[in-house]
Amino acid sequence: MTINSFVKTQGLGNEYIVLDENNITFPLTEKAIQTICNVNFGIGSDGILVKTHSEKADIGLKIFNPDGSEAEKSGNGLRIFCKYVYDYQIINNQQFTVETKGGIVNATIQETNNNRASIVTVDMGQAIFASPLIPTLFESQEVQDQMIQIEDKIFKVNCVSLGNPHCVILKDHLEIDEIKKYGPLIENFSKFPNRINVQFAKIIDRENVEVLIWERGAGFTLASGSSSCAVASVLRKKGLIDHLVTIHMLGGSLTIDISEEFNIRMTGEVKQICDGTFHEELINSFV
């Protein structure tokens, strides 16, 4: 690939730009990340995925939110990254491991089209419910149906970590305006020291759930892999769904499989949008 090249790919409308840290001539500063992700001044993206070297896995991955902060894990980001390394023959096997800030992930290319990955499964690890490890500042050992007040409303929250923190709120009705209003307030609530991802979830039946998502550092988003896993793990712990569930989001659906030990595997499609090269005029704006 040429110097300063990029690939842009989406998973259920959640789009990421993929870079190789050894193939760019500029430092990936907070300003650079914010500019690249900006739809008006850059390329436009829900985040940036950076291929790195790993001593612990087949390949390494760094994940950055549009605000420049680094994320521990992203389900859609992982599937997009796995497609990238497979499609561009960086990895030649259909099963491999990826090191993230949130831990080692096992990945499988489930289906291909013209030798390019189309359906990817990633092992998202084990759901963690212990309050200090998520982390939250609630006194209870686990955060289940904990009441919090956000301005004029009281929410019943359930928290879990998939390598990154999540707050799941069960709803009878889902309203986009509601999560756009309260999502950022819950994200920055005082009990969440590292901020938190927010999901409003509506159970359809034991095998289907609808979800709206406010993503930490990114805002309202059409889909999120780790958020889907968080919702599924919380509902499974409550006994409200079966071990295999489809999470329906505005951008599409993901299949989540949860073991008895709360190990989670996520499967969904990914599609490349475009590839290209950063122009020097854009790179100069990073300074």
What does this structure look like?
- By secondary structure, the chain is an alpha+beta fold.
- Helix content is 18%, strand content 43%.
- The protein is built from 5 helices and 18 strands.
- It has helices at residues 30-37, 75-87, 176-187, 225-237, 280-284, and strands spanning 5-11, 14-20, 48-52, 59-64, 70-71, 95-100, 103-113, 116-126, 146-150, 153-161, 165-170, 197-205, 208-215, 219-221, 244-249, 252-258, 263-269, 271-277.
- It has an 18-stranded mixed beta sheet that branches.
- A hairpin with a 6-residue loop joins strand 3 (48-52) and strand 4 (59-64).
- The protein starts with a strand and ends with a helix.
Offer a few descriptive terms.
18 strands, alpha+beta, globular, 287 residues, 18% helix
Outline the fold blueprint.
Elements: E1 5-11, E2 14-20, H1 30-37, E3 48-52, E4 59-64, E5 70-71, H2 75-87, E6 95-100, E7 103-113, E8 116-126, E9 146-150, E10 153-161, E11 165-170, H3 176-187, E12 197-205, E13 208-215, E14 219-221, H4 225-237, E15 244-249, E16 252-258, E17 263-269, E18 271-277, H5 280-284
